[in-house]
Write the structure tokens for this entry.
Amino acid sequence: MLSNEIKTSIQKAYTSFLNGKELKARLGQKLMIAEIAKTLGAIDQDDSGKRTSDPAVCVVEAGTGTGKTVGYCLASIPVAKAMDKTLVIATATVALQEQVINKDLPEIRQHSGLDFSIALAKGRRRYLCLQKLDLLLQSTQAASATMALFQEEGFSIDLDKDAQKLYEEMLGAMAGSRWDGDRDSWPVAVDDEQWQQLTATHAQCSGHRCPHFSNCPFYKARGALDKVDVIVTNHDLVLSDLMLGGGAILPPPKDCIYIFDEGHHLPDKAIDHFACETKLGDTGRWLEQSTKQLEKILAQHPLPGEIGGWFERLAGKYKELVTDQQFMREALMSAAEFRQEEETESGRTLLYRFPDGVIPEELRELAGRLKSGFSASVDLADRIVAELKSAMDDEVSGVDRLHAEQVFPVVGMMLLRLQNNLALWESWSIADPEGEPPVARWLRLVEYHGSQDLVVSSSLILAGKILRQHLWNTAYGVVVTSATLTALGKFDRYRTRSGLPKDANCQSVPSPFRHGDAAVLSVPVLRSDPGDASGHTEEIIEQLPALIGEVQGALVLFSSRRQMRDVYFGLTGEFRDRVMLQDDYTKQELIRRHKEIIDDEGRSVIFGLASLAEGIDLPGVYCEHVIIAKIPFAVPDDPVEAALSEWIESRGGNPFMEISVPDAAIRLVQASGRLLRREDDTGRITVLDRRLVTRRYGQALLNSMPPYRREIA
């Protein structure tokens, strides 16, 4: 039960914020605050702060203009502080993350009367590794020999003058306390290749055993996170931390209340995070190079006792794995019936997906051999890593501490890659449990510049199991919010894909926008539908100039790159000069140029794909007309979605109505949502797809959209 003290704190904070910003209360925002506070306030804990009730999960769909950030912050900050928990706000995009930490939270703190501290959490790869910088700047023969071991991780033994100068400047700035080792705070942009050499993964990091630990930029930043009330980060970093068991980067889940903004991305992000993949050719070359690395380590400094024997056995296992991978490649190439997936200027990709995720027995046996080989290699590498850590603690006689420090990152990276391969072949070697969604398993034959590689992959088709295991059941509390969480007016799709607890509080709050007064949804007369690709494209080319007319800013969204380019090159004259293709610019540069043209009283039209259907903000005249080329059904070739459809069909369901239509409904809402970004925005949305009128599912899709005024021919 939410205490009166916390209720009063939330109410006072909201009133103060509205008065300080001279704003009026919004019904949707008030309801959002109430539902989140009620859910989090229902958590029971003992005197030590441990949760004693089931995890509390609140899911709130709130459209653009609701003021979601203010809503979830004012509801959750007082609760988190009262319960002595850390509030972790995770966004899916950098743009929203920057807005939350640079604008929204400072304004809330200034006007609400709430006192709280804020920090931005970044992944380890955003910070300088002093150990690597030290190695790069050493010039002795011994150091060069050690650096040679890192070539597989992208180290360059012979630094060019520019890199040498940059690294010396960084060392001086660190020593003079003029820089904190954060890539984003270095005064000029650092080339990706140069930065790659300066960072370490968790597998390469020796933690408190590192001679530079006390000055380590990552651990200093990590230590600061334990002392703040609100942490802002991204979905990927939260998932990485949870996959490592929690508490590796962020505070432990039991001490956190998580807010997932743009939370409709969470299930797909989780699936991607836990997917497995290996490139057989690339992995074979890595195993051969790693064998040489191990032999080089032993040649430089013979290691005594068991650890020396483990190195020799690991090198032997690598040679066996190279042979086993060759057998597997030959077997896969003969078993797979590849079909063309995509063709590019550099080559093509062919795909084969195993129906129902079932691997033939012969292939499963070979996968089992690879699993056993990688398992034994992981075991040996794990023992070596543990022994090297002991050596760094001066607990192993005969092993020099300095040598252990130099070798540890090399073996640590080996261990990480071995573990990744083990997970893949483990997935391929076992049958899926009956009654549970199967694992999707597929192959890609990648051909580029005259060479080939066979990519072996597996992935869960639903994220429910892993999110229950790593998030819903471990966190103190979770809030998920987005403008698009329902499909066809229900939360069923999100529940299925995310595995939400049955008692999760799911609410949809009203938008402050008066959609019927502000925008028109139009479906014009067309001779063809998207089933006739060439005819549909020709009609778009014919109608587009008149549809857009003289509006200053317009956005045209396509479901396929080919149609986008065909329409662009089919346009003629002055109108085509107004159009910018998403392919030709980064998203940031595209938006910048578009706004610049309109600010100079010009006219600009953006042609974009699915990635522009959400996450971009074009208020007012920057976007007065959104044109959607066709209903945004998912690409049927995606192996995970295809496997999910197959599973639903096997259970007597209708994949088209259970997956394709709800997914398309969400994408339509997201795409149309590019039009109204402020309460005074107006404009038009046009869908060039008559299936909205002629097919039975069309009415359901239309009804799932906000209540725009309709003009349907």
